[in-house]
Amino acid sequence: MKLRRTFSVAALLMALAACSTLLPQADTAPTPAEASRFLQQASFGPSMAEIQALTHSTPRRWLETQFALPQTELQPVIEPYHAALAKGENLSQQLLLDLVWKTAATAPDQLRQRMTLALSEIFVVSFDGSLSPRVRGMAGWYDMLGRNAFGNFRDLLEAVSRSPMMGVYLSHLKNQKEDPSRGRVPDENYAREVMQLFTIGLYELNPPMAARNCVTATPWKPTVTRTSPAWRACSPASPMAARAAVTATSSSRVRTPGGTSCP
Questions:
Q1: Which InterPro entries does this chain map to (predicted)?
Q2: What is the pTM of this model?
């Protein structure tokens, strides 16, 4: 954990350094101008008292303090509003939006909140369409991004993939394995988005790329065994669970027992 934290501090300092020549040295007390610029980039805006305090400390100490702060979550605030609803009523989307910005402006864990907003603009879900009434779930989605703001990308991507909100938005919730005998094809929506938008990006139609073992426009023909879980959602804010795994090869299909169930 200490090693990961060290890398996190270094990565954030390098990222901030790329944005401005005013970034102070990590272990040197900054000038007021440097402190102001640093806090503008690493938070939602500092007060004069916070700028003054940083001039008597260092960016590294500030980051370490921010890493140690507990997460300010939206879900605990949303739940009492949900409990007070009459039957058939839904929470207001504006309630959540107001809460997001109030938290951004006032929460002590400013670095986490800034990171969460940035992640929400990369891993995108929307109130438009099927997620329109799912305010509790969207609060849980935002909290999930916050929990993974300082971790590694693999854990973040798994949490995003197993979120019921992403499962609804990109349609892999309750997905089914392809079945040629019934004319059922796999839902490739999330698979496409996770590669094109969240990880490796779009391939380039450039023949020289093929010589360097890069992705080309040639369709992928899988010949290895693949496992596709059937996902189910236990609650709006809990990760989706795999009920069972369906393993398919070019010559056979075998359903394997296992997976998890909702409590």
A1: DUF1800
A2: 0.73
For 104-148, the pLDDT digits (tens) are 999 999 999 999 999 999 999 988 877 878 899 999 999 999 999
Does 34 share its domain with 80?
no
Give me the number of domains the chain comprises: 2
Instruction: Mark whether 164 and 113 lie in a shared domain.
Output: yes
Tell me, yes or no, whether 89 and 54 share the same domain: no
What is the full DSSP assignment across 104-163? Answer: HHH-S-HHHHHHHHHHHTTS---SSGGGTT-HHHHHHHHHHHHHTTTS-HHHHHHHHHT-
Asked if residue 60 is part of any domain, the answer here is: yes
Q: What span, in angstroms and rounded, lies between the C-alpha atoms of 111 and 149?
A: 9
Exposure string (b/e) for 152-186, b if CB count within 10 Å is 16 or more?
Answer: eeeebeebbbbbbbbbbbbebbebebbeeeeeeee
